[in-house]
């Protein structure tokens, strides 16, 4: 079963607009963590933001914020005032326990293109 | 600070050949990860080291893949023999305390023909 679902294969947004990238997750754990990573064409994965399952407030990091809706099991990434440099693949990931060890499970990703 | 170094950046081989990838993590990072990222998918963990011991290798195809981290610093991932489905980007990452501070390298893109 898919643990992390990103339903938007591609998104196209005008520069300076806000954009929301969707992520839903599936877990029976009470304690888990959710991450967003950016992967530019150069290939490296860049950590953007983290939300713990017990965190009461939505995480924010500069222009990035995470819209965490625990009951709906969603953890959408919001990028405000998008820039051309935001064009990249974006991955949602979840930390969970599996067979006695912690694992980081990634979604399929969303390709974001910012148009000038 | 220097990032996670990986080499080579690109490798093209024929099926049934062998290949090795090298990773040098950030100095002081005890945990090292190897991920496989097939085109159009998110990364999948192959193996995780804590210092020079294996923490998790449950998704490593052990009949053809092997990895070592001698002296708890740099690491080598080997595929022998390679199959067409091994074509992917192999990402190395390291962390000091956990996933919140995990830093990825630029990856090695492997094409198996």
How many strand units of chain B?
11
What is the end-to-end distance of chain A?
38 Å
Please give the radius of gyration of chain B in angstroms: 13 Å
Largest interface: A-B, 22 and 24 residues
Please state roughly what percent of the residues of chain B sit in beta strands, choosing from under 5%, 5-15%, 15-25%, 25-35%, 35-45% or over 45%.
over 45%
Secondary structure: elements and pairs:
The complex is a heterodimer of chains A (116) and B (113).
Chain A: E1 4-5, E2 10-14, E3 19-21, E4 24-25, E5 33-39, E6 46-52, E7 60-61, E8 64-69, E9 74-79, E10 88-98, E11 101-106, E12 110-115
Parallel strand pairs in A: 2-12
Antiparallel strand pairs in A: 1-4, 3-9, 5-6, 5-10, 7-8, 8-9, 10-11, 10-12
Chain B: E1 5-7, E2 10-13, E3 19-24, E4 31-37, E5 44-50, E6 53-56, E7 65-68, E8 75-79, E9 88-95, E10 103-104, E11 108-112
Parallel strand pairs in B: 2-11
Antiparallel strand pairs in B: 1-3, 3-8, 4-5, 4-9, 5-6, 7-8, 9-10, 9-11
Keywords summarizing the entry:
heterodimer; A: 116 residues; mainly beta; six-stranded mixed beta sheet; globular; B: 113 residues; four-stranded antiparallel beta sheet
Polypeptide structure, described:
The complex is a heterodimer of chains A (116) and B (113). With 116 residues, chain A is an all-beta fold. Chain A has strands at residues 4-5, 10-14, 19-21, 24-25, 33-39, 46-52, 60-61, 64-69, 74-79, 88-98, 101-106, 110-115. In chain A, the strands form 3 sheets. In chain A, strands 2, 5, 6, 10, 11 and 12 form a 6-stranded mixed β-sheet that branches. Chain B is mostly beta strands and 113 residues long. In chain B, 0% of the residues lie in helices and 49% in strands. Chain B is built from no helices and 11 strands. In chain B, the strands form 2 sheets. In chain B, strands 2, 4, 5, 6, 9, 10 and 11 form a 7-stranded mixed β-sheet that branches. A 4-stranded antiparallel β-sheet of chain B has the order 1-3-8-7, with no helix packed on it. Chain B starts with a strand and ends with a strand. The mean pLDDT of chain B is 92. At the A-B interface, β6, β10 and β11 of A face β5, β9 and β10 of B.
